Amino acid sequence: MTEFARYPSLAGTPVVISGGASGIGESLVRHFAAQGSKVGFVDIAAEAGENLAAELTEAGQTVRFTRCDITDTEAYQAAIAGFAEAHGDALVLVNNAAHDERHDWAEETSASWDQRIAVNLKHAFFAIQAVAPGMVKAGRGSIINTGSISWMIMAPRIPIYEAAKAATHGLTRGMARELGKSGIRVNTLVPGWIMTQRQLDKWLDAAGEKQIEETQALAGRVYPEDCARMALFLAAEDSRMISAQQFLVDGGWAHV
What we know:
By secondary structure, the protein is an alpha/beta fold. It has a single domain, classed as Rossmann fold, CATH 3.40.50.720. The chain has nine helices and seven strands. Strands 3-2-1-4-5-6-7 form a seven-stranded parallel β-sheet, with helices on both faces. Helix 1 crosses helix 9, helix 3 (73-87) runs parallel beside helix 4 (110-138) and helix 4 packs parallel to helix 6 (159-179). The radius of gyration is 17 Å and the shape is globular.
């Protein structure tokens, strides 16, 4: 990562990341830790989370993992409080956790709706609620919500996920107004089709490769680290006067 920017304002900064054990989340953890931030992250995948934390700690970085189901609000807020005890109040929150499981709208129930909203939207609000008092006290902070281009391009078979991700930017705009006078910035990072291992294993086939070639303006593929580097900028003081915005990291996908 030596060819990319270092942000002095992130050194020693307490950071909380959800869904940090794999995919984009893992890259976020690695990139913030490499900046010298004090990283606390949660994930439901205990083994992967513990292994990542152990690897980075052995490398001399400050990383703490707590196994947590982010749909359990009390447990998640308790985990955030634990990170604050260890690292100090979070000054950066990255609401990364989500699950883009395909679903058929005709077969959904009230319970499955609630579950999908909980894993893709609800936890972000209650994480903000947990970290905001510390940020208000400090007079600064950055909250990064993770959106998706899926609702912009009307991707098939994920309508509840798309509803949650569209609402995420509404949450960003609303909380940017609520918290802005306290020096807290709130923005949305919007990934395109990111080449995580899960996407490669489950969704990327020959038709998908063809779609990327035809629809993405830039050649090549978008990877988790591309999202992580945008998150670093939005977390650092370099973006201190940017709030209530959404930043697309999608290779220039044609939005129709």
